[in-house]
Amino acid sequence: MPIKYNLTKFDILADKIHKLSVNGNVEKAHRKAKTAGKDEDTTKLVAIIVASMSSSYSWQTYKSISMQTDELNSPQVKAEHEYAVRERWKHVGAPDISEIASLNISDSVFYRWLFFNVPKKEHESYKHAWVSLKREFGAKK
């Protein structure tokens, strides 16, 4: 008898992230499917956001967001984001996505984090990914 699994939205997104990370990078994935390029960019940015804010990858950022301290402009938070961009996004799993979705991070907190830690030229892409993440998981404002 086959084993049955209940897949959640978190599992599906984690699987998309894993497949994207296995492809090597977004540019390689773009060559495979040019029409899906924008979706893959958004998926990678969602993974970066989750890796930058989840407690298992970025403790200082998570602590600052969940306890509402004013440390989003610290070097530790910036370093956690930079490491998420380089490597950690590839390891994001369903529990990490679930954790961020359940935090109900307000837009103002996200935009403050964005302002301090992400280069200005990338803000629009991150905002698009943030809206996509919130819409997908029904997070409140």
Please describe what this structure looks like.
The chain is mostly helical and 141 residues long. It is built from eight helices and no strands. The chain has helices spanning 9-22, 26-32, 37-53, 59-66, 75-86, 94-103, 107-117, 123-137. Helix 2 runs antiparallel to helix 3 (37-53) and helix 3 packs across helix 8. The longest helix is centred in the first third of the chain and has 17 residues, at 37-53. The chain is globular and about 55 Å long. Residues 28-35 have low confidence and may be disordered.
What order do the helices and strands come in, and which of them pair?
Blueprint: H1 9-22, H2 26-32, H3 37-53, H4 59-66, H5 75-86, H6 94-103, H7 107-117, H8 123-137
Helix pairs in contact: 1-3, 1-6, 2-3, 3-5, 3-8, 7-8
